[in-house]
């Protein structure tokens, strides 16, 4: 579970709700028509902008940032070193039996076991990197669009409320409450954009850069194992991808 994402979202909500409770009642900030305009309108526009499959894919990717823990680059380096140790001790064919949830790493192990040349490994992982970037770009683009649509619908809701308020100027007592309701839609749009949609788009961008780097580590590790499966040399080369303070080579039997 990604603690940073949950902590950031919960902290933001807590601060906003705390400010609301300190100044009045939460019910003052709840308005069904405003929610209909902002949430419904935003979802409608995103479905017009993107195919439904891409919208579903984006929301699925957005949910995963809360559930999955970020894999550290150092962990990937250590995995490649362990693979080098196995290949040196048991031979390249032993890598066919490597069990891992990482499909790319599994494919790299299979290519090493097949004694594929470095060019084939590079081309295979290049295709994987390109495919991963395209998938992540869709999710990032969808959430950036959501971040743009929600404040716009907030303004639309505010204009609707102002028009309705101006139509009732003959009743001065209704002006204050009507103005409050009109502004709530802008609040909803800004809150969704700032606290959720833009941060999720940024997180997806960060995950893309992180996974791209890790695929590069896997490629370099696979190439190094084929050229020279000395675990120490594999580690020395791959450790260049990680920060100096995270570098620690531990030889396993």
UniProtKB/TrEMBL annotation:
The keyword Transcription does not apply. It is found in: Cell membrane; Membrane. One of its GO terms (biological process) is protein transport. Keywords: Cell membrane, Membrane, Protein transport, Transmembrane, Transmembrane helix, Transport. GO terms for cellular component: plasma membrane. Its main location: membrane. Residues 99-216 form the MotA/TolQ/ExbB proton channel domain. InterPro entries: MotA-like, MotA_ExbB_proton_chnl. The keyword Protein transport applies. Signal peptide: none annotated. PANTHER family: CHEMOTAXIS PROTEIN MOTA, MOTILITY PROTEIN A. Belongs to the exbB/tolQ family. This is Motility protein A.
């Amino acid at each position: 579970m990604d603690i940073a994402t949950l902590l950031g979202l919960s902290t933001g909500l807590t601060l906003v709700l705390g400010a609301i409770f300190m100044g009045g009642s939460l019910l003052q900030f709840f308005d069904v028509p405003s929610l209909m305009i902002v949430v419904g309108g935003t979802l409608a526009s995103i479905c017009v902008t993107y195919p439904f499959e891409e919208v579903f894919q984006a929301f699925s990717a957005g949910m995963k940032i809360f559930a999955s823990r970020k894999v550290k680059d150092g962990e990937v380096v250590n995995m490649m070193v362990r693979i080098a140790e196995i290949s040196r001790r048991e031979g390249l064919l032993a890598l066919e039996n490597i069990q891992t949830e990482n499909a790319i790493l599994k494919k790299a192990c299979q290519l090493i076991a097949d004694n594929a040349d470095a060019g084939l490994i590079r081309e295979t992982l290049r295709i994987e990197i390109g495919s991963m970037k395209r998938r992540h770009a869709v999710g990032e683009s969808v959430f950036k669009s959501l971040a743009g649509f929600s404040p716009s619908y907030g303004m639309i809701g505010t204009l609707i409320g102002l028009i309705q308020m101006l139509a009732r100027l003959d009743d001065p007592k209704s002006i204050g409450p009507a103005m409050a309701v009109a502004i709530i839609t802008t609040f909803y749009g800004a809150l969704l954009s700032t606290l959720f949609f833009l941060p999720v788009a940024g997180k997806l961008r960060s995950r893309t850069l992180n996974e791209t780097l890790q695929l590069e580590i896997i490629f370099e590790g696979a190439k190094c194992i084929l050229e020279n499966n000395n675990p120490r040399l594999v580690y020395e080369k791959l450790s260049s991808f990680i920060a100096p303070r995270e570098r620690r080579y531990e030889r396993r039997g």
